[in-house]
Every structure is written in structure tokens, then in C-alpha cells.
Amino acid sequence: MLDFFGTIGGAIMAPLYYVISAVLVGFHKLFGSLFGEASGVAWVLSIIGLTLVIRMALIPLFVKQIKSSRNMQLIQPKVRELQKKYGHDREKLAQETMKLYKDSGTNPFASCLPILLQMPIFLALFRLIDQAAKDPSHERGLMTKELNTQFGDAIFLGAKISDTFLNTDDIGVRVLAAFLVLAMTATTFLTQRQLMSKNMPADALSGPYAQQQKMLLYVLPVVFAVGGIAFPVGVLFYWTTSNLWTMGQQFYVIRNNPAPGTPAAEAKEERDRAKAARKGVKTASQLEEERLAAEAEARRAEKSETRQQPQRQTKAQRTKKKKR
Known about the structure:
This is Putative membrane insertase. InterPro entries: YidC/ALB3/OXA1/COX18, YidC/Oxa/ALB_C, YidC_ALB_C. With 324 residues, this protein is mainly alpha-helical. It has one domain. It has 13 helices and 2 strands. The chain has a two-stranded antiparallel sheet with strand order 1-2. A hairpin with a 2-residue loop joins strand 1 and strand 2 (159-160). It starts with a helix and ends with a helix.
């Protein structure tokens, strides 16, 4: 039975080995010509190049993730209303909640897609590095025996790319691995904290979704820290680079397209006002405020004019006035 599942898993991973090794070997040809084919610098830069290619390919999913996360934040008041209304009936609550997700175009699982799709890639890179160190003659994808030997033996800052924190007694290797584990953990924490502190409305900071985000804020870094000590140095470079990309990408989105009613939205409005003031023009929000103020003033003037208009007299009142 285990052999059967192993065969299925190998068949699923085989295309990934070809795709990842093709990108890795392509970058290695470029950087190998500059730093030497067996150079650790060339292989580390190739891993970073692979990471950037993967993250660029995942940009459409990241956009969906941002939209879904924003929708989840904005519908939290409605979710709380449903919980108050149907709290006694779990089945009805689940039905109404799913209907709300559907009507608002929100997929609660979309925020997990980028990290879920990266896991097979992460596993494939882990297996390529591990296999290169243990048995270079076992070729996977486009990694030949010669490339496996170079990859497994490549040294960067005194550490082999295939070394882990646990499988070495070299203090220098452990320091580098520990630094990368801490960098991976810190970037995971800061990315999640950036989202919660700057791009979540005040009314979305309570309720089940907020609790889930707070849990992820502390649980994910711990998971990566515990698992990271078993990751090869090359994999740690991949994951840290991926986290840095996520931080930069998220910072750009929050700064330029923040969710309404968040601290980031207020900061953007202040920047837009300052920029418009320097150019001597008005922002879209200022023009909208003036339009609404003008409409309100027009309604007040219309009501005032209606109150001041003389009351129309009846025919009997006019006849009585003439007799006088």
C-alpha cells in the first residue's frame, strides 16, 4: 500500500522536478558563467532567481488573495449579525454565512492559495537538494549527476547548501542556518502583523475572522521556526526570499490600494491631499465632499423657500376679504 502511494506521489512530483530544475539550471548557467559553476554564490543566486520566477507566476493568485481578504474584513459586521440572529441554529448559520460569501464574491479559502501552491514547489526543491547531497547519481528532472554533485557540495559563507541546523556540528553552519531560520520566522510575523495593523478596519478586529488572523500571527512563525531547523540552507534561502517578496508586495498593495476605513486608507488620503495641495488641485475625495456639501445646501435652501412661501387662500377666504 505504501509503495502504491509512493508511486502516485512520484508521478505527481515528476513534472515539478522538471519545471523547477529547468528554471534552476537556467539561472545556474547565467550565474555559473560569472562566479564559477561549482560556486555556492551561483547556486544561491539560482535559488533566489527560482523564487522570484515562482512568485511572479503567483501574482494573479495574490491579487485574488488580497481581494478575498479585503471582502472578508468588510463583511465581518454582517457575519456578526448572522451569528446573533442564528446563533442557536448552527445549520442555518452555516447556510446563511455561505450565502453571504457567495453574494459578496468572497472565497474564505482564497487567502490560503498562494502558500498552498508553494508547498509542492517547496517540497520538490527540498527533495532535489536532499537527493543531490545523498545520491548525486540519482537524476531528477534536468539535474544531471554532475549538476547534483555541484549542487550538493556548493558552499556559501562556509556552509553547504545541503546542510541543516540539525545535521552538522560546525558552529559556522549552525549560525548561518539559525540566522536564516530567524529571518524566515521574523518576515512571516511582520507580514501578518502589517496586514492586521494597517489594512483591517476597526470593526473587523473582533470576531472569528480576527481571532483566526491573530492566531496565524503567532502560530505560523512558531511552525516555521520549529520546522526550519530541519530545512537545508538552500531551502531556507528560498523561503526567506519568498517572505521578503510577500512583504514588499503587500506593502505596495496596502500603500496604493488600501481597504476602506483602515489606517492605511487614512494615510493614503493624507498623502493624496498633500500631493494635491502642492500641485494646487483637489483630490477626488475633496471634490466628492464639496459635491455632497453643495447638494445638502441646495436641499436646505429648498426647504427654507418652501417654509417662507405664503399660504394659498381658499375661495371662501377671498370672498370674505372682499366683503370687508
